[in-house]
Specification:
Blueprint (H helix, E strand, L loop, with lengths): L10 H14 L12 H8 L3 H13 L3 E4 L3 E4 L4 H14 L4 H22 L2 H19 L5 H14 L3 H9 L1 H17 L3 H17 L2 H19 L1
Antiparallel strand pairs: 1-2
């Protein structure tokens, strides 16, 4: 397979799109093995976490079969049926913000809990810096999606739980996309400052080392965001 480096924001979609193109032109046939995660990552100049996200979507859509220790294989089906199924998976994979928030709720509540217990001075400085950048973005009337993501990822890192960090990184593309949509709508409704206070409060209780309160406030923050989108 000859693939081109990916440059778009929704990188996992480009991975899927290029696999579809490779099937269309006959570079890979139904039943054949896909290149390894490492090989795809190198060819596409993208992280392996994005590759795994794309493959996970294809596996969920019953497009590929992953054989542990061997690799990922396209399902053995006729080419046209396979392409039709792949494009269906591709087009229906629009972000569901509420579902994403539901996943984030449990994951980040635990991250906040652990951050309050385990954060080092350096971790707290990183969270504070991200919070200040977010507050400055709001003051400058910017959306602040990247800054918001940085705040939540900093809390994840402060948990010192590698699995939490990996999972947050795995969903970071969708996370950022959802934040852009959410924060744009918050600006339209003039409700940005309400949710900014929640970020500041979460930071404060993490600094205080109150793990239970940190978890509670993060969960409440997600509850409020879910309600906002309903």
């Amino acid at each position: 397979m000859q693939l081109r480096p990916i440059k778009k924001n929704r990188a996992y979609e480009d991975v899927i799109e290029q696999i579809i193109e490779s099937v269309e032109i006959g570079d890979i046939a139904p039943g054949e093995k896909l290149p390894s995660e490492r090989n795809l990552s190198e060819q596409l100049s993208i992280s392996r976490s994005v590759i795994r996200e794309a493959l996970s979507i294809l596996q969920t859509g019953n497009i590929i079969e992953v054989k542990p220790g061997i690799g990922a294989f396209l399902k053995q089906d006729d080419k046209e049926t396979l392409l039709k199924n792949m494009k269906t998976v591709f087009t229906r994979n629009e972000i569901d913000i509420i579902q994403l928030l539901e996943v984030r709720q449990s994951l980040e509540a635990q991250a906040a809990y652990l951050a309050a217990k385990r954060a080092t001075k350096s971790d707290l400085e990183d969270i504070h810096s991200a919070l200040v950048w977010l507050e400055q973005a709001v003051e400058n009337k910017n959306i602040g999606a990247d800054e918001d993501l940085s705040f939540h990822l900093a809390i994840g890192r402060a948990s010192h739980n590698a699995m939490i960090v990996d999972l947050l990184n795995l969903i970071s593309d969708r996370f950022l996309e959802a934040l852009k949509e959410t924060r744009t709508e918050l600006m339209k409704r003039n409700k940005v400052n309400i949710y900014m206070k929640e970020h500041r409060n979460i930071y404060n209780v993490i600094v205080e080392g109150d793990a239970e309160k940190a978890s509670e406030l993060m969960k409440l923050h997600m509850d409020n965001m879910i309600e906002f989108h309903q």
